Amino acid sequence: MSSSFPSLGFKRDAASSATSYSYSSDPHAVSMEEALSYYAGLPSQPALIYRTGKEQWSPPKGPEAYRRLKELCEVFAHPIVEVWNDELGWKVVSIMDAHQVH
Predict the structure, then answer these.
(1) What angle do CA 17, 59, 43 make, to 5 degrees?
(2) Residue 102 confidence (pLDDT)
(3) Scanning 37, 47, 70, 98, which has its CA 20 to 30 A from the CA of 53?
(4) Please, what's the b/e burial string for 7-27 (b: 16 or more CB within 10 A of its CB; e: otherwise)?
């Protein structure tokens, strides 16, 4: 059974379509547990829908396990800054705003 999202939905509605912690043959698939905890700490509580990294995620374990909290920070020296500030950022926001979960 696959744990990846059948559609690129967002938030808990999308995560509810995923199964428990396991991975499909897609190395970038996201489990429901990973989707709901990956961005822990961000006020908007987004769900991770797909990842491009090769590192496999594993849930926190043990009696004192806790999620690694994320925070948003500016990226000053990365090459994407030039294109992001030249309209790419607003194009991404527009696409995300127009997306509908089916």
Answers:
(1) 70
(2) 55
(3) 98
(4) eebbeeebbeebeeeebeeee
pLDDT digit string, tens, across residues 30-82: 888 889 888 889 988 888 888 888 777 888 888 888 888 888 887 888 888 88
Determine the Cα–Cα distance for residues 41 and 80; give it in Å rounded to an integer. 24
Cβ contact 70:39 at 8 Å: yes
> Phi first, then psi: what are they for 95, rounded to 5°?
-65, -45
Handedness of CA 50, 54, 57, 1 (dihedral sign): positive
Tokens of 34: 């990973």
Count the residues in the chain.
102
Question: Is the pTM for the entire model greater than 0.85?
Answer: no
Residue 2: how many CB atoms within 10 A of its CB?
14
Q: Which two tokens stand for residue 95?
A: 């696409």
Residues 3, 28, 2, CA angle at the centre, nearest 5°? Answer: 20
